[in-house]
């Protein structure tokens, strides 16, 4: 319903698109400078926009939030977050260098090894799940494509 | 912009979710009883709704449009249709029987072998692309996950 005029608009699920930017045995996380979960750590991600593909949106968010230079790779996770009407997509993305330039939505961007990940300070469940799959697949020597549903 | 009050609403891409319902060497298509592309053939699909996962939406559309009894399988294609702001998802779905009950949006539902597919009467490019991948993978003996962008 329009908050101005109370006209009813049909609302559909939204896509949230992001990446797992990796460098050797490390993954890039961003500390959020905006609500919700300000101060918590996240993979770079945001709402998909008109005029772009899922992968292009994921790359755009990675540049906007971390200023990272990346080479996009395969789709890695697709996670339905049913209660909030969102579908989250994370792509693997190889960091081409370590020059970062965090944008205004990010307090700091930092690389973490698996044992350094701030598991208790992650902003979203989809970020935790994606990181768990990433390090499990890395140990297994092969990266798959993982689907999951959160309610 | 709200058509009633001209309040600006942010518009994001929409997800269209459907299935490739298969039975032995045949695939189920539905002839559309609604615009756009009324009278053309399509895989069962429609807009994802709030409160469901991508796969649940695909299964719902298959029941609504064909009345088919299916067992959902893996995500098969993810196709960005950039110009119209849509992302199309098709899941493989095994038909459990041949009892069909097309809904009001469908003129008729019918099974087709590869050589019988009405290629020139398909409603959407994403349906054509998904069917091409389906029969190619079937010949190859292994079903993959295919991503594509249409502009």
Please tag this protein with its features:
globular, homodimer, 151 residues, alpha+beta, 8 strands, eight-stranded mixed β-sheet
In words, what does this structure look like?
The structure is a homodimer of 151-residue chains. Chain A contains 2 helices and 8 strands, in the order ββββαβββαβ. By secondary structure, chain A is an alpha+beta fold. In chain A, strands 1, 2, 3, 4, 5, 6, 7 and 8 form an 8-stranded mixed sheet that branches. The model of chain A has no long low-confidence stretch (mean pLDDT 95). The A-B interface holds A 2-5, 7, 9, 11-15, 47-55, 75, 78, 80, 82, 85, 87, 145, 147, 149 and B 2-5, 7, 9, 11-15, 47-55, 75, 78, 80, 82, 85, 87, 145, 147, 149.
Computed CA radius of gyration of chain A, to the nearest angstrom: 16 Å
Shape of chain A: globular
The number of distinct β-strands of chain A equals: 8
Assembly context of the chains: homodimer
Proportion of residues in β-strands of chain A: 35-45%
Largest interface: A-B, 29 and 29 residues
Question: Mean of residue pLDDT of chain A?
Answer: 95
User: What is the percent of helical residues of chain A?
Assistant: 10-25%
**How many helices of chain A in DSSP terms?**
2
Can you write the helix and strand succession of chain A as a string? EEEEHEEEHE
């Amino acid at each position: 319903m329009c908050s101005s005029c109370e006209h009813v608009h049909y609302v559909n699920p939204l896509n949230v698109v992001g990446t797992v930017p990796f460098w050797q045995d490390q993954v890039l996380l961003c500390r959020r400078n905006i609500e919700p979960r300000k101060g918590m750590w996240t993979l770079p991600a945001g709402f998909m926009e008109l005029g772009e593909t899922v992968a292009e949106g994921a790359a755009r968010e990675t540049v906007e939030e971390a200023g990272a230079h990346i080479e996009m790779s395969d789709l890695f996770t697709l996670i339905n977050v049913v209660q909030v009407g969102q579908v989250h997509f994370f792509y693997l993305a190889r960091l081409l260098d370590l020059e970062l330039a965090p944008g205004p939505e990010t307090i700091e961007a930092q690389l973490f090894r698996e044992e350094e990940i701030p598991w208790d300070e992650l902003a979203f469940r989809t970020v935790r799940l994606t990181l768990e799959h990433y390090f499990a697949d890395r140990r297994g020597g092969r990266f798959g494509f993982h689907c999951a549903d959160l309610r």
